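Run log, item B.
One chain of 74 residues. Sequence copied directly from the ordering sheet:
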Amino acid sequence: MLRQFIIPSANNHSFVLPEVYYGKKVMVTVSVLNEIIDDKKEYLTKTKEARNFFNSLQVDMSGFKFNREEANER
């Protein structure tokens, strides 16, 4: 795997692949690094909010005992 960070300009918007990749199918993905970082920060923020929400809904069930007979009475 090759990972290369470049800052393209009008004169420089290409990169060189090592010879081991010649003749093979390769996938090139281009994305703006700041957007990836912002998306990850937003994801982490939403994950933290979700964890806080669900943690607030937790109930202590350590003293709970299930009574099958009482549950089946009708």
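Observations after the first pass:
- The radius of gyration is 27 Å.
- DSSP finds two helices and no strands in the chain.
Flagged for discussion on Thursday.
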